């Protein structure tokens, strides 16, 4: 998904839905870092 190779996934690069992007973007900087992407959330 990291199309430009900068190590982060932006909202434009993300292939999933907006709600999933928002859940993964823990620090709300508009990017999903490698660390954020590696965290698995428990099912609710």
If you had to describe this structure to a student in words, what would you say it looks like?
The chain has 44 residues and is of the alpha+beta class. It has a domain at 9-38. It is built from 2 helices and 2 strands. It has helices at 18-24, 34-38; strands at 9-10, 31-32. It has a two-stranded antiparallel ribbon with strand order 1-2. The chain starts with 8 loop residues before the first strand and ends in a 6-residue tail after the last helix. The relative contact order is 0.22.
Q: Structural class of the helices, strands and pairings? A: alpha+beta
Query: How much beta, percentage-wise?
Result: 5-15%
What is the typical, i.e. mean, pLDDT? 90
Helix content: 25-40%
The strand order across the widest sheet is 1-2
State the helix count: 2
* Poorly predicted regions: none
| Strand count | 2
- Sheet having the most strands: 2 strands, antiparallel
Beginning-to-end CA distance, first to last residue: 26 Å
Shape: globular
Order of helices and strands: EHEH
Write down the Rg.
10 Å
> Which oligomeric state applies?
single chain
SSE map:
Layout: E1 9-10, H1 18-24, E2 31-32, H2 34-38
Précis, in short:
The protein is an alpha+beta fold. It has helices at 18-24, 34-38; strands at residues 9-10, 31-32. Helices cover 27% and strands 9% of the residues.
């Amino acid at each position: 998904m990291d199309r430009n190779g900068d190590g982060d996934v932006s909202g434009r690069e993300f292939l999933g839905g907006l709600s999933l992007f928002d859940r993964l973007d823990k620090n709300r900087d508009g990017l999903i870092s490698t660390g954020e992407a590696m965290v698995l959330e428990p099912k609710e």
